[in-house]
Amino acid sequence: MIRYPVHTSFCLIFLLTLVACSVSNNPQREQLKGLQKGRIKDDSSYIYRLPYEEGKSHLLVQGYFSRYTHRNRAALDIKMKRGTKICAVRDGVVIRVKEDGKRGGGNVKYRSEGNLVIIQHSDSSRSGYWHLQYNSVLVNVGDTVKAGQVIARSGKTGYTYFPHLHFIVWKSDGRGQWRQIGTRFQTNKGIRYLRPFRFYRNHTE
User: Fold this and answer.
1) Per the structure, how many domains does the chain have?
2) What pLDDT, in 10s, does the model give residues 67-77?
3) Residue 144, CB half-sphere, CA atoms under 13 Å: how many?
4) What pLDDT, in 10s, does the model give residues 12-28?
5) Is 50 contained in some domain?
């Protein structure tokens, strides 16, 4: 079920912050906005699982090219309590893990403390999961994982103001350059490009 957030005070502070920020000029921004709002149809790209357990619902607080910290990023921020189980969005092989960071906060000095998992997929794209809880990663580099498998727990490590999962998918252009890409997900309301300030429930068919 998709519904508007109940944490009014959190959203009010977040929205006030957005007003002061500039908008990205990245050409992907308008394309992704069109996909999110249904103005552009997409029936060919890979359909990802949501990065949390079946039946669970979480609030998307930042979407692609949002005006806060995603002005130039095709990334998603999903609000979660510390310790929430994080699941792989698709099958792949783990290529990077960090779980020794203990600190986090709204200062760039904490950036290097951010714990993460990066998984490479069969089409050479990669998915990344950030701000994970200290010592919570359940996979190792070289492990093969399945979509829906629990790989870690969410936290507040690195450069972040609140506990959440920062999620990105990116792909190589074949010339050594990587670019972040927007992705569509299977939800209980069907296949969606996620939009900020909405709850999305994980439901697979």
Assistant:
1) 1
2) 655 455 578 99
3) 1
4) 334 433 333 334 456 56
5) yes
